[in-house]
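User: quick one - fold this with uridine-5'-diphosphate bound?
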Amino acid sequence: MNRTFIIVKPDGVRRGLVGEVLNRFEQRGIVIVAAQLRTIETNTAKMHYAEHAEKPFFAGLVEFITSGPSLLAVLEGPQDTWKIVRTMIGATNPAESAPGTIRGDLAVEMGENIIHGSDSAESAQREIALFFPNQQ
Ligand code: UDP
Ligand code: MG
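Assistant: Sure. Structure tokens for the protein plus uridine-5'-diphosphate:
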């Protein structure tokens, strides 16, 4: 089986969208194998988003992702799970996230965009190890 990692970000939790987001994955046939409501610590957030450390939005991103509880989850499907989940999430730029995707249906901001999903099999493995060391 093939696993990926998602975060329903603090805006999604604050807006009461955890059920809506998880329901979409469950209806698709993707299984939730681990889940935890947790406020991400600053150091963990910096490690998670290390690829963006030099970007101008990095400080704001870390502040936002640690601003309240997030719902962290490991999802499993038969193959290409990270890719299926990314397709369901939609584009980062709200002007490009298609209707029918999570961001395209539920978000209009580049920063507060409801959800994170791993962007490759390698990222999934790294992120699962960071947040759920028992679920690799
Ligand atoms: N982000 C932002 N401004 C930007 C680009 C990204 O605030 O110009 C935030 C946004 O919340 C995004 C996160 O940084 O989800 C990570 O960026 P990435 O390019 O990895 O997008 P994602 O993989 O989440 O679609
Ligand atoms: Mg990304």
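One thing worth noting: The radius of gyration is 14 Å.
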